[in-house]
Amino acid sequence: MLRTRVIPTLLLRNESLVKTIKFGKYVYIGDPCNTVRIFNELEVDELIFLDITATVEGRAPNLEILADIANECFMPLGYGGGVKTFEQAKSIFQIGFEKIVINSHAIENPVFISELSKHFGNQAVIASIDVRKSFFGHYSVRTYSGKKKADIEPTLWARRLEELGAGEIIITSIGNEGTWSGYDIDLVKTITEAVSIPVVAHGGAGCLQDLSDAVKLAGASAVAAGSLFVFQKKDMGVLINYPTQDEQENLFGDI
Predict the structure, then answer these.
(1) Where are the domains of the chain?
(2) How would you classify the pairing of strands 26-30 and 47-51?
(3) Helices and strands, number each (H, E), in the chain
(4) What is the C-alpha separation between 222 and 166, in angstroms, rounded?
(5) Do the Cβ atoms of 240 and 43 come closer than 8 Å?
(6) pLDDT tens column, 9-31
(7) Average pLDDT in the 25-47 region?
(8) What is the mean pLDDT of the chain?
(9) 129-158 pLDDT tens trace
(10) Rounded Cα–Cα distance for residues 34 and 165 (Å)
(11) Per CATH, which fold does 5-252 belong to?
């Protein structure tokens, strides 16, 4: 049995870390390099950094801050935000990141996923799908930090991304993100049942049991969270934290 990965997702806004709620209101968390140093000590499985304004602003990845992060980090790193060219991806890998996260540009240029996968290997390519649930319970794929609606259903898009060569998929519920209300288990399950590649549940984790539920009830291969790992508790101050190996063993039973 493969070990269930537990992945902090850290949001970059300019050169600072922030945490959003439903892709909207945000609060300041701290300096990314200082945060990485703490996660080093906590021996996390891997980290994912997402620049939440790069695509919306039409801006390229900030290679300077990414280099600073990579120099401090002792665990596998993933990055997403504003990556639109092969050369940008190559530069990020050369800096020391192991994975590239592609979201909006995959909708605009699906072949880009294949290009990256063929050159760097599918294990280096994460496809990210942001999903909003309507009042009537219908799911729609969103891009540009949730601002644009894509004309494709989430499970069909997940299958297409797998065909294109993505090595894993991060599925994020926009409505749950930052709310501490738990993952959208139904959404995650529809994606895990649609593809054979690993699916990372993201958006809404508020306690360790939520991580277990995403794996045991929805079939996720890994779990990602932001608020749970950067705040002491809901509506409380910043406290970088991460479940111990004993806690993870109790949750997943696969360590």
Answers:
(1) 5-252
(2) unpaired
(3) 10, 12
(4) 16
(5) no
(6) 999 999 999 999 999 999 999 99
(7) 96
(8) 96
(9) 999 999 999 999 999 999 999 999 999 999
(10) 34
(11) TIM Barrel (3.20.20)
Active-site entry in 51, 130, 210, 213: 130
Q: What is the pLDDT of residue 57?
A: 96
pLDDT, average across residues 189-199 = 98
Closest by Cα among 100, 117, 199 to 165: 117
Matching residue, tokens 């600072």: 16
Which residue in this structure is represented by tokens 């039409």?
58
Strand 16-20 relative to strand 5-13: parallel, antiparallel, unpaired?
antiparallel
Would you say residue 228 has pLDDT above 80? yes
Alpha helical stretches, state H, the chain:
32-42, 63-72, 86-95, 104-108, 111-120, 154-164, 185-192, 208-216, 227-230, 245-252
Cβ(88)–Cβ(60) under 8 Å?
yes
Q: Give me the phi and psi of 9, to 5 degrees please.
A: -110, 125
Tokens of 162: 């797998």
- Token couple for 88: 């940008």
Residues shown for the chain: 255
Quote the CA–CA distance of 39 and 31 in Å, as a whole number.
13
Q: Name the phi and psi angles at 134, rounded to 5.
A: -80, 170
State the amino acid at position 118 in one-letter form: K
Check if 254 is active-site: no
The H-or-E segment that residue 202 falls in is: strand 199-202
Contact assessment for residue 173 and residue 183, using Cβ atoms and an 8 Å cutoff: yes
d(CA 219, CA 183): 12
